[in-house]
Design a protein that fits this description.
By secondary structure, this protein is of the alpha/beta class. The chain is built from 11 helices and 17 strands. Helix 7 links the parallel strand 10 (264-266) and strand 11.
């Protein structure tokens, strides 16, 4: 019948439109092979560790990088799950490079748990956060850099071994990688040029141990052809202000148009008000398409702050499947406040909203994984950890089943 033929044609057109136009939201094609990177794929896992930062990078050339890994707030089970995830990601391999943005515990105190005793990774950290291993009985003079007691024993032993094996690199305040010349010590791509490699944009700009503005700011670029590179920025806890100001420093060093354009940005200092990713000038230069806030549930620092979340312009962000996002809203001074809060004149209340754009919080979305094969496009997945027994052989499959594709093969910025 005529109506049946027309119905068949209409259905065929509808199916064709859905498969070619509609984004593949929710349908996850993620595999552990993709998560591990290599063979021309770059994979970046911003891992849910509670209140802290932890990023595992699978390079296109097969190298593995750990950029920070620590947590000071959050349940122990979550940290154990993060360690299990990293070990499964490594699949018997080892990290080739470790970059510590700065000496705060929530950026380093898990590292020793995922770096075996037989590994000998190259470790990079700020000069001001590099311990001095003084001889026994030596008393440091005034003004000398911190002794080894500033770090937990596990990470300290890692630093000792790296120093012994001449695998300890420090970033001084004057150091930065020039455009077209990525960091020679962090080999992530087969080719090193303006569009391929890892740049140290800044580091060690503060004075003293474990200062936020000591943070090494990393910028990853990857393109395997003449296309816009896939880019990731990891700013540690870098903040606005200070002398020199880290935002002004980076902007002057990289004034070339669109060089700092960023596809996926980890929010600075877990989404603090003074983080550089809450600075309008810095956001205008970087134009992030995705921003990830790594913070723990009900954290006492009230991260991420509402102001930091809202500062990111919708003009840059991608639209995606709706998802929850928790941020802290500053409340007016009230009679019921504690004396300490009254002195500070502030109190915060956590509020969960529904986000329709590409702002994600690890406390709500779990681990956030970005993938690109260097063709000028990238995909992004959110993966809450399954709370199942990690000793079970099917835990890796359980993890993949929890993942949701939120961004599907979008053009790079």
């Amino acid at each position: 019948m005529i109506w049946q033929r027309w119905f068949s044609v209409l259905m065929a057109v509808t199916i064709a439109w859905v498969t070619t136009v509609s984004p593949a939201y929710g349908v996850s094609d993620l595999t552990w092979e993709k998560i591990r990177g290599g063979s021309g794929t770059m994979s970046v896992s911003m891992i849910d560790v509670g209140q802290g930062n932890c990023v595992a990078i699978g390079c296109p050339n097969g190298k593995k990088i750990l950029a920070d890994c620590g947590s000071t707030k959050g349940d122990q089970a979550l940290k154990d799950l993060a360690v299990h995830y990293i070990n499964y990601l490594l699949d018997g391999s080892q990290f080739d490079y470790i970059v510590l943005s700065h000496g705060d515990k929530d950026h380093y105190n898990i590292i020793h748990r995922v770096v075996g005793s037989l590994t000998n990774p190259l470790i990079t950290l700020p000069e001001g956060d590099t311990p001095r291993f003084y001889p026994p009985g030596y008393v440091p003079k005034s003004g000398e850099l911190p002794e080894m007691t500033n770090y937990d024993p596990g990470f300290l032993n890692l630093l000792k071994n790296a120093k012994k094996n001449r695998n300890l690199r420090t970033i001084e305040s004057t150091y930065f990688d020039k455009i077209g010349k990525p960091n020679p010590d962090l080999q992530c791509s087969a080719i090193q040029n303006e569009s391929n490699g890892i740049y140290v944009l800044a580091g060690n700009l503060a004075e003293g141990f474990a200062k936020n503005n000591n943070s090494i700011v990393l910028f990853l670029k990857y393109a395997n052809k003449a296309v816009k590179p896939f880019t990731i920025m990891l700013p540690g806890d870098a903040e606005t202000g200070g002398n020199p100001d880290i935002v002004n420093t980076i902007e002057k060093r990289y004034a070339k148009a669109n060089f700092l354009s960023t596809d996926v940005m980890m929010a600075s200092h877990h989404g603090a008000e003074k983080g550089i990713t809450a600075d309008s000038s810095f956001l205008d230069k970087t134009k992030p398409q995705v921003v990830v806030f790594s913070a723990g549930k009900k954290n006492t620092f009230n991260h991420p702050r509402c102001s930091a979340v809202n500062e990111i312009s919708d003009a840059y962000l991608l639209k995606c499947q709706n998802h929850p996002l928790t941020r802290s809203i500053k409340q007016p001074v009230s009679y019921s406040m504690s004396a300490s809060k009254k002195r500070k004149g502030e109190e915060f209340k956590s509020a969960k909203i529904t986000s329709y754009d590409s702002r994600f919080g690890t406390m709500d979305s779990g681990t956030v994984i970005s993938l690109s094969d260097g063709n000028g496009k990238f995909s992004l997945y959110t993966c809450p950890f399954p709370r199942t027994d990690t000793s079970r052989s099917d835990w890796p499959d359980d993890f993949l089943e929890e993942c949701t594709k939120m961004i599907d093969n979008k053009p790079t910025n």
